[in-house]
UniProtKB/TrEMBL annotation:
Pfam families: Cyclase. The keyword Flavoprotein does not apply. This is Cyclase family protein. The lineage of its organism: Bacteria, Bacillati, Actinomycetota, Actinomycetes, Kitasatosporales. It comes from Streptomyces omiyaensis. It is an enzyme of class 3 (hydrolase).
Length: 308
């Protein structure tokens, strides 16, 4: 089954292949300039810090819907062990097995492909079981620190969370920007709050997963027009699920990651951030969201922090 004409039309309008050179592997992260980081750092006034990650635990956000994306299996491998003999200092160590996209995470540009290609026109078969991603692995997405902007779509509509069938449109993003009195600009990392993570935090993991609100197939053009560096939200699937266009599964993934080369994140906890932004009276802040640098990874856990 081929992708519909509507997808290819949007792809042609947002495509960034070659924009930063044929050898580029980081896409829109090129837009986070030194000047943008300095300006973002200048927004820190009070030192208030807001953590944006969900807890990594065995009964985490994953429901089994996505094969292989296992919640963390956390075991102790040493417990108060005196490695250098009786009476010496004892240590405890632990180990974990987890899907790199299991909790709050970034998707690498190699997480999605279509028509046999990944970002910048490279062949999708450069991703192999043993070699992992030869290009644009998550370890190349370094220095994700800059100006974060919360577009609180749910709050702008006066609700705790958007309904499961809600596709977040460009008009919704405009409404949220107006609500927060903020202008999205080049190099920003945009966080889109639907309120959906609230279901998981309240213990309704399956309600959190499906059906899910998420970004519309129309939003990549909105982000492209504003030169956004990366986007994350508080849902399991990132885009609306099931999709707006019949049988166009993960179309937003393909447009963001493959065509635009724009990092995207999922399962971000934006609830406390929503409260903080309302209390501080501003929806822009310094954001530190460095990926764990798994070489060749197609995704990675992240523990982002917003600073006011």
């Amino acid at each position: 089954m081929s992708l519909p004409a509507a997808f290819h039309e949007i792809a042609g309008r947002v495509n960034n292949w070659g924009r930063w050179g044929r050898d580029d592997e980081i896409g829109t992260l090129n837009l986070i300039s030194d000047e943008a980081v300095r300006e973002a750092a200048a927004t820190v006034r009070t030192g208030r810090r807001v953590a944006l990650a969900v807890e990594l635990r065995q009964d985490g956000v994953q429901t089994g819907m996505i094969p292989g994306r296992v919640n963390p299996l956390h075991v102790m491998v040493q417990v108060n062990q005196e490695l250098f003999g009786p009476g010496t200092v004892a240590t405890s160590d632990d180990a974990a097995t987890l899907g790199l996209q299991a909790g709050t995470h970034w998707d690498a540009l190699t997480h999605a492909s279509h028509s046999g290609r990944i970002y910048n026109g490279r062949p999708a078969d450069t991703i192999t079981p043993h070699g992992r991603a030869a290009f644009s692995g998550i370890h190349t997405a370094r220095h994700v620190v800059g100006r974060g902007v919360l577009l609180d779509v749910a709050a702008a509509k006066g609700v705790d969370r958007l309904p499961g069938g809600h596709a977040v449109t460009p008009e919704d993003l405009d409404e949220a920007a107006e609500f927060g009195r903020v202008t999205v600009r080049a190099g920003d990392v945009v966080l889109v709050r639907t309120g959906q993570i609230g279901l998981y935090l309240a213990g309704d993991k399956h309600g959190y997963a499906f059906p899910s609100p998420g970004l519309s197939i129309r939003t990549p053009e909105w982000f492209h027009a504003r030169d956004v560096a990366a986007v994350a939200n508080d849902t399991l699937t990132f885009e609306i699920f099931p999709p707006e266009i019949e049988d166009l599964w993960l179309g937003v993934h393909a447009l963001d990651l493959v065509e635009m080369g724009m990092l995207q994140g999922q399962n971000w906890n934006l609830e406390e951030l929503s409260t903080a932004c309302a209390q501080e009276g501003r929806y822009a802040f310094l954001l530190s969201a460095m990926p764990e640098p798994f070489v060749g990874g197609t995704g990675t856990p992240v523990a982002p922090v917003a600073l006011f």
